[in-house]
Amino acid sequence: MTSEIDNDLKAKIQSLEGKSKDDLLAIIGAYSLSEDTDRLFLVQSRGVNLKTFKSHGEAFYKKIEPVLKEAICGNDGLMKMADGITVAVLVPTVLKVMGFAAGAVVPTVVVAISYLIIRAGIRKYCEGYPKPETAKA
Known about the structure:
- This protein is an all-alpha fold.
- It has helices at residues 3-16, 21-32, 37-45, 51-73, 87-97, 108-120, 122-126.
- Helix 1 packs across helix 6 (108-120), helix 2 (21-32) packs across helix 4 (51-73) and helix 2 packs antiparallel against helix 6 (108-120).
Protein backbone atom coordinates (compact mmCIF):
# COMPACT_ATOMS: atom_id res chain seq x y z
CA MET A 1 0.00 0.00 0.00
CA THR A 2 1.14 3.50 -0.61
CA SER A 3 1.61 5.86 2.31
CA GLU A 4 -1.46 7.86 1.15
CA ILE A 5 -3.61 4.74 1.33
CA ASP A 6 -2.03 3.75 4.66
CA ASN A 7 -2.84 7.21 6.03
CA ASP A 8 -6.41 6.95 4.73
CA LEU A 9 -6.84 3.57 6.45
CA LYS A 10 -5.38 4.90 9.71
CA ALA A 11 -7.75 7.89 9.57
CA LYS A 12 -10.77 5.63 8.99
CA ILE A 13 -9.74 3.30 11.80
CA GLN A 14 -9.39 6.27 14.16
CA SER A 15 -12.69 7.81 13.06
CA LEU A 16 -14.61 4.61 13.83
CA GLU A 17 -12.73 3.64 17.00
CA GLY A 18 -15.26 5.09 19.44
CA LYS A 19 -18.38 4.24 17.44
CA SER A 20 -20.99 2.02 19.04
CA LYS A 21 -22.08 -1.28 17.52
CA ASP A 22 -25.31 0.43 16.39
CA ASP A 23 -23.32 3.17 14.65
CA LEU A 24 -21.13 0.59 12.91
CA LEU A 25 -24.21 -1.34 11.78
CA ALA A 26 -25.75 1.92 10.51
CA ILE A 27 -22.62 2.58 8.42
CA ILE A 28 -22.84 -0.95 7.02
CA GLY A 29 -26.56 -0.40 6.39
CA ALA A 30 -25.90 2.83 4.54
CA TYR A 31 -23.41 0.97 2.37
CA SER A 32 -25.86 -1.87 1.74
CA LEU A 33 -28.42 0.70 0.61
CA SER A 34 -25.78 2.19 -1.71
CA GLU A 35 -25.69 5.36 0.35
CA ASP A 36 -22.56 7.40 0.71
CA THR A 37 -21.42 6.81 4.31
CA ASP A 38 -20.47 10.47 4.62
CA ARG A 39 -24.11 11.31 3.93
CA LEU A 40 -25.10 9.07 6.83
CA PHE A 41 -23.70 11.59 9.26
CA LEU A 42 -25.60 14.41 7.53
CA VAL A 43 -28.77 12.36 7.79
CA GLN A 44 -28.08 11.72 11.49
CA SER A 45 -27.67 15.42 12.16
CA ARG A 46 -31.08 16.05 10.61
CA GLY A 47 -32.70 13.58 13.00
CA VAL A 48 -33.45 10.70 10.63
CA ASN A 49 -34.09 7.47 12.50
CA LEU A 50 -31.03 5.23 12.27
CA LYS A 51 -33.05 2.06 12.90
CA THR A 52 -33.53 1.72 9.14
CA PHE A 53 -29.80 1.88 8.49
CA LYS A 54 -29.07 -0.42 11.42
CA SER A 55 -31.57 -3.08 10.31
CA HIS A 56 -30.19 -3.03 6.77
CA GLY A 57 -26.67 -3.25 8.22
CA GLU A 58 -27.61 -6.28 10.33
CA ALA A 59 -29.18 -8.00 7.30
CA PHE A 60 -26.18 -7.27 5.08
CA TYR A 61 -23.74 -8.44 7.75
CA LYS A 62 -25.65 -11.72 8.23
CA LYS A 63 -25.62 -12.21 4.46
CA ILE A 64 -21.83 -11.94 4.15
CA GLU A 65 -20.97 -13.51 7.52
CA PRO A 66 -20.60 -17.12 6.24
CA VAL A 67 -17.95 -16.00 3.75
CA LEU A 68 -16.26 -13.83 6.40
CA LYS A 69 -16.16 -16.76 8.83
CA GLU A 70 -14.66 -19.04 6.19
CA ALA A 71 -11.94 -16.47 5.44
CA ILE A 72 -11.22 -15.70 9.08
CA CYS A 73 -11.93 -18.94 10.91
CA GLY A 74 -11.25 -21.57 8.22
CA ASN A 75 -8.09 -23.64 7.91
CA ASP A 76 -6.42 -20.98 5.77
CA GLY A 77 -7.89 -18.10 7.78
CA LEU A 78 -6.52 -15.66 10.29
CA MET A 79 -7.59 -17.69 13.34
CA LYS A 80 -4.13 -19.23 13.59
CA MET A 81 -2.84 -15.81 14.69
CA ALA A 82 -5.91 -14.85 16.75
CA ASP A 83 -4.02 -13.05 19.48
CA GLY A 84 -2.31 -10.70 17.03
CA ILE A 85 -5.29 -9.66 14.94
CA THR A 86 -6.10 -5.96 14.88
CA VAL A 87 -8.51 -3.99 12.71
CA ALA A 88 -5.64 -3.14 10.34
CA VAL A 89 -4.68 -6.83 10.06
CA LEU A 90 -8.30 -7.86 9.41
CA VAL A 91 -9.03 -5.21 6.76
CA PRO A 92 -7.31 -7.01 3.81
CA THR A 93 -9.34 -10.17 4.49
CA VAL A 94 -12.62 -8.23 4.64
CA LEU A 95 -11.63 -6.33 1.47
CA LYS A 96 -11.11 -9.61 -0.36
CA VAL A 97 -14.36 -11.15 0.91
CA MET A 98 -16.31 -8.09 -0.22
CA GLY A 99 -14.63 -8.07 -3.64
CA PHE A 100 -12.64 -4.86 -3.25
CA ALA A 101 -9.15 -4.58 -4.73
CA ALA A 102 -6.26 -4.69 -2.30
CA GLY A 103 -3.99 -1.68 -2.48
CA ALA A 104 -6.82 0.73 -3.18
CA VAL A 105 -8.54 3.19 -0.88
CA VAL A 106 -10.30 1.21 1.83
CA PRO A 107 -14.08 1.77 1.99
CA THR A 108 -15.37 2.81 5.42
CA VAL A 109 -17.75 -0.16 5.43
CA VAL A 110 -14.76 -2.54 5.44
CA VAL A 111 -13.34 -0.86 8.55
CA ALA A 112 -16.78 -0.93 10.23
CA ILE A 113 -17.14 -4.68 9.59
CA SER A 114 -13.59 -5.26 10.83
CA TYR A 115 -14.39 -3.39 14.06
CA LEU A 116 -17.52 -5.49 14.65
CA ILE A 117 -15.48 -8.68 14.37
CA ILE A 118 -12.58 -7.43 16.51
CA ARG A 119 -14.92 -6.16 19.21
CA ALA A 120 -16.68 -9.52 19.34
CA GLY A 121 -13.27 -11.14 19.81
CA ILE A 122 -11.79 -13.41 17.16
CA ARG A 123 -11.99 -16.53 19.30
CA LYS A 124 -15.62 -15.84 20.20
CA TYR A 125 -16.42 -14.89 16.60
CA CYS A 126 -15.02 -18.22 15.39
CA GLU A 127 -16.64 -20.30 18.16
CA GLY A 128 -18.55 -23.20 16.66
CA TYR A 129 -16.96 -22.80 13.23
CA PRO A 130 -17.34 -24.79 11.12
CA LYS A 131 -20.94 -25.50 11.88
CA PRO A 132 -21.48 -29.20 12.49
CA GLU A 133 -22.97 -31.06 9.57
CA THR A 134 -26.61 -31.82 10.09
CA ALA A 135 -27.37 -35.51 10.23
CA LYS A 136 -28.95 -36.86 7.07
CA ALA A 137 -32.02 -38.98 7.53
